[in-house]
Amino acid sequence: MKRSIAKTMALVGALAFAACGGSQNALDSAGVQSGRIESLWWVFFWITAVIYVIVMTVLAVAIFRRKRSDEKTVPETQPDPVDEQWTANIIKGAVGVSVIILFTLMILSFRTGRAINTLSAEQSPIEIQITGNQWWWDVEYRDPIPSMNIRTANEIHLPVGRPVKLTLQSLDVIHSFWLPNMHGKMDLIPGYKSTFFFRPDEIGTFFGQCAEFCGYQHAKMRLVLFVESQEDFEKWAAAQRAIPPAPSDPVQMRGQQIFQQSVCTQCHAVAGTTANARVGPDLTHVSSRHFIAAASLHNVRDHLKIWITDPQSIKPGVRMPMNNYTEEDLNALVTYIENLK
Amino acid sequence: MKRAVLLFAAVALVAVACEREERGFRVEPPQAARIDSKQLSTLQPGEPAPQQIVHNEYEQNAFALTEGKRLFSQMNCVGCHAYGGGAIGPALMDDKWIYGSRPEQVFATIVEGRPNGMPSFRNKLPDYQIWQLAAYVRSLSGQVPKDAAPGRNDNMQVKEPENSKDREIPNDATLPPSAERPE
């Protein structure tokens, strides 16, 4: 028991480091739309900061200049008309200035909202369908030729500078898709398809997050965006479309046998085999991914093992059931999975 | 005095609610002493063996029942049984039970499969999920407490939710059709 606690602690520590790898910051824009959102944010920030300072100064002056009253002073019964006039003028002026500032901010906000929703589609956009599940993202690249479709999970690869059209849907509860470096949030509503566009303009790794509370593991429903050069993207896409080679050595063959004969195939799919369920993430090229468990664990052998045997210790409530395998079988299974590239 | 009684009732209510929603993610599934499937013959040496009563705790647990409901769709039970009304497979919301209505009999039916189309889920689902499914299957005909049965559907459905279903008195067949002697 103690050892499993230590293991969990180590995993949590590793997670904290994993967060440092990429960027997840709305103020570090890497696309046109997030750039506009960022400038709007700074306009709001500076205007409200100045107002905050003014209000706080006035408040401080009022506090320190208050009349020191003691019991002997007689309270004023008749207000001074000059004072009254002054107060009225100040209130009128402040209301006027507030209205002007609020309308200015509102118009700026409308303009930004309109601008980020009209992304010029000079090139044909890449079409991706994203399905929200508790608690992972099903990613499907749509192509007019069905054999060119790519199905993966939690990790999106995109070529730099080309617009993307996302179709978002949910199979259970409301989720929200948010890549802060690219765009604002967009909700995934069950029974409804929402679309939105963005264009990544910088090469890099960006993290995203479900932004609508969706249950126990909402915080560990993350996704990663890899923005690459056109060549790198083509290379990745070609590898994803290929069917992984059949296992050749006995350990891997045993691993595949376990995979096919036990509970795995009820939810997961591996292209080229009889496993074709769509309940859980597609595992055809799982080892080409950098993370598992919706980008909450690095994709390494030890993590795979603990994820298969006791996923509930990492993400309590996750749909992945706990499994019992002998050490030998587990090794074979993990070796097989590691070769699904 | 009255206030004390009310307070006690409120606390008791809270406690009841906790039990109902308790989510044991790493608990052991209910264990049947042995899988007691329907006797497939009227013949046996001596007197018939007594029934072994198995208690499926998941039938009192709202979370387990909704998990069963989710699996019922995701594992494609709906493909044949529809949402309980039956299609190419028998209906599950009526009072007819070909292979027995008791929890362990439903469990055995799912694990072993049955002639004429019911697939076997042996080794294809962990035991605890089969117990969740068995609990949900029994909720379709109102065999579980109404305060634990699912109260809503995720999609539009013509049938009432499980917790509005009145209990059908199970009418277990004496012998399943697969065990009947040919005429």
Helices and strands, with pairings:
The complex is a heterodimer of chains A (341) and B (183).
Chain A: H1 2-18, H2 32-64, H3 81-116, E1 126-133, E2 136-142, E3 150-153, E4 155-159, E5 164-170, E6 175-178, E7 185-188, E8 194-198, E9 204-210, E10 222-228, H4 230-241, H5 250-261, E11 291-292, E12 297-298, H6 301-309, H7 327-338
Parallel strand pairs in A: 1-5, 4-10
Antiparallel strand pairs in A: 1-2, 2-3, 5-8, 6-7, 6-9, 9-10, 11-12
Chain B: H1 2-21, H2 62-74, H3 78-81, E1 96-97, H4 103-112, H5 127-139, E2 171-172
Parallel strand pairs in B: 1-2
Our Rg estimate of chain A from Cα atoms comes to 28 Å
How would you state the average pLDDT of chain B, rounded? 84
Quaternary assembly: heterodimer
The coarse overall form of chain A would be elongated
Low-confidence stretches of chain A: 16-20
Which class do the helix and strand fractions of chain A yield?
alpha+beta
| Estimated helix fraction of chain B | 25-40%
Count of individual helical segments of chain A: 7
Short description:
Chain A is of the alpha+beta class.
Describe the structure.
The complex is a heterodimer of chains A (341) and B (183). Chain A is of the alpha+beta class. Chain A has a 5-stranded mixed β-sheet. In chain A, strands 4-10-9-6-7 form a 5-stranded mixed β-sheet, with helices on one face. Chain A has a two-stranded antiparallel ribbon with strand order 11-12. The longest helix of chain A has 36 residues, at 81-116. Chain A is elongated. Chain A is built from 7 helices and 12 strands. Residues 16-20 of chain A have low confidence and may be disordered. Among the domains of chain A are: 32-62 and 83-116; 250-338, Immunoglobulin-like (Sandwich), CATH 2.60.40.420. By secondary structure, chain B is an all-alpha fold. Chain B has a domain at 58-176: Cytochrome Bc1 Complex, Chain D, domain 2 (Orthogonal Bundle), CATH 1.10.760. Chain B has helices at 2-21, 62-74, 78-81, 103-112, 127-139; strands at 96-97, 171-172. Chain B is globular and about 70 Å long. The termini of chain B are far apart. The model of chain B has no long low-confidence stretch (mean pLDDT 84). The interface between A and B is medium-sized, with 18 and 13 residues.
